[in-house]
Design a protein that fits this description.
mainly beta, three-stranded antiparallel sheet
Length: 89
Amino acid sequence: MPTYEYKCRDCAHAFERFQGINEPPIQVCPECEGRVQRLISSGGGLVFKGPGFYATDYRSDSGGAKPAAKKTDGVGKTESGKSGGDVSD
């Protein structure tokens, strides 16, 4: 159920009520029994939990595949015969 904010037009008392969407708005102030108006609120706030949000947090398992790791022959050379640590070509 949503929370609605109200403010009394007579005594300026502000209060909140949990109400169903189909329920009529409250008309009477609980403090002075004066007229109230329902306020427009900003809605619920977002709560972020955990260490952070990343682009990969919402990617499905069927999404893009991870790049394959280079295979080495145990001596530091890749399948192409080039040394894995050699940058100068």
